[in-house]
Each structure stands twice: as structure tokens, then as C-alpha cells.
Amino acid sequence: MSTEKMVRNLAKQLRNVGPKLAAKLIEAQIDSPDKLRQLGAKKAFEKMYAAGDSYGDFNAAYLYALEGAIHDCDWLDIPHTIKQEYKEFARNLQSKKDLK
């Protein structure tokens, strides 16, 4: 299957995931909803950036999208406490990146 087709397929299967995020997941070898669920949002996010960062900053919004995709809910419905945790996680990753 072509990468483009894999991207479209994954984006259709996962709520909150559009073509750009789906491409990033596939680039990180996360090519199915099951793999994303097994990893969880944080590990998937780390793998995406280990595969090469084309988004720029470590943005917590991607974590919200991944969490929503895992639980099949809109990212806006993610509880505030989890969003705060993900903001801190993203800030910590950005700090580590800035130290390099």
C-alpha cells in the first residue's frame, strides 16, 4: 500500500487525526489505531518527534488529538487535568530540545 493511501486510511480511522498528523504517525511507524492505543498519547508523541520534527514546536494540541483518537472522543472533551498534564509534558520536551 502506498504511503499516501496509508495516510488517508489512518486519518479516516482516527478521530481528531487529519492527513498531516496521520503522515507523522506513519513516519513514526504507528500505522494503525491499535498501535496508537498500545503506545498511548505520550509515547506516540515522543516517537513522532524521534522520527523527525516537521511541525516545529512540541505542541500539546497534538497530544490532545492523540488522546482523543485513542478514546474516540473530540479533543475538546479531554478533561482539563489531562490537558494540563500534556501541556507540562510538551513543555518538558521543548526544554530538553532547547538544551541540545
Notes on the protein architecture:
It is a single chain. With 100 residues, the chain is mainly α. The protein has one domain (3-99): DNA polymerase, domain 1. The chain is built from 5 helices and no strands.
State the main characteristics.
0% strand, single chain, 100 residues, DNA polymerase, domain 1, mainly alpha
- Biggest sheet: strands, sense, closure? none
Helices and strands, in order, run as HHHHH
Rounded mean pLDDT score: 90
Which structural category fits the helices and strands?
A: mainly alpha
Helical fraction: over 70%
Give the tally of structural domains. 1
CATH topology (fold) name: DNA polymerase, domain 1
In short:
The chain is mostly helical. The protein is 70% helix and 0% strand.
Chart the SSEs and their pairings:
Elements: H1 3-13, H2 19-27, H3 33-50, H4 60-71, H5 80-99
Helix pairs in contact: 1-2, 3-4, 4-5
